[in-house]
């Protein structure tokens, strides 16, 4: 495992375009994420290798950006987790010194949960997890996140049947499309 040396800092991009740089990682409160936007700017161009887009999250009641179809799948999964209260895409930039070199990392998602501690998620295709460079980056990022008392997850492709079910059910997460009186009047298993 890598060894983190020195202080870890975090930078955020604000909705007004300003950047809060070099916030102290270990003491910055979670309230700083509410008025923030994704760290990277998303661009769409013909022929790009990944598929970026916007996902309407019923949890957030707003769009959440994603950089790949695999990230979209993780958003679908988070939207169905009853403990998830918020999802932030590319929430911050981590900076620290690891093995004598300055390192930077932007996680894919920050998931706030009702019953558990915060969860930092990196989404990677399973075949890339065997690459030494990817393992090194995820290793020190995991170490930094866990040092804060948060959870860390590397998320890859789910089973096909689970993904098919999530995609099908995603359309039913838009509660404003359904008559609440009609749905609320019946209990489960009746009629």
What would you note in describing this structure?
With 191 residues, the protein is of the alpha+beta class. 23% of the residues lie in helices and 32% in strands. It is built from four helices and eleven strands; from the N terminus they run βββββαβββββαβαα. The strands form three sheets. Strands 1, 2, 3, 7 and 8 form a five-stranded antiparallel β-sheet that branches. Strands 6-9-10-11 form a four-stranded mixed β-sheet, sandwiched between helices. The chain has a two-stranded antiparallel ribbon with strand order 4-5. The radius of gyration is 19 Å and the shape is globular.
Which helices and strands occur, and which strands form pairs?
Layout: E1 4-14, E2 19-24, E3 36-37, E4 53-57, E5 62-66, H1 69-79, E6 84-89, E7 93-98, E8 101-105, E9 109-113, E10 119-123, H2 132-147, E11 151-155, H3 160-170, H4 180-184
Parallel strand pairs: 10-11
Antiparallel strand pairs: 1-2, 1-3, 1-7, 4-5, 6-9, 7-8, 9-10
């Amino acid at each position: 495992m890598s060894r983190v040396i020195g202080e870890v800092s975090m930078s955020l991009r604000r909705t007004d375009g300003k950047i809060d740089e070099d916030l102290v990682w270990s003491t910055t409160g979670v309230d700083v994420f509410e008025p923030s936007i994704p760290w990277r700017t998303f661009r769409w161009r013909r022929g790009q290798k990944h598929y970026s887009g916007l996902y309407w999250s019923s949890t957030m009641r707003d769009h959440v950006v994603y950089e790949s179809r695999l990230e979209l799948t993780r958003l679908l999964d988070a939207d169905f987790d009853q403990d998830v209260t918020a999802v932030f895409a590319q929430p911050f930039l981590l900076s620290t010194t690891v093995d004598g070199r300055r390192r930077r990392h932007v996680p894919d998602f920050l998931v706030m949960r009702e019953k558990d501690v915060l969860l930092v998620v990196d989404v990677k295709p399973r075949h890339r997890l065997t690459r030494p460079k990817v393992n090194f980056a995820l290793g020190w990022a995991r170490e930094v996140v866990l040092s804060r008392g948060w959870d860390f997850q590397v998320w890859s492709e789910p089973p096909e049947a689970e993904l098919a079910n999530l995609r099908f059910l995603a359309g039913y997460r838009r509660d404003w499309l359904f008559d609440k009186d009609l749905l609320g009047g019946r209990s489960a298993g009746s009629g």
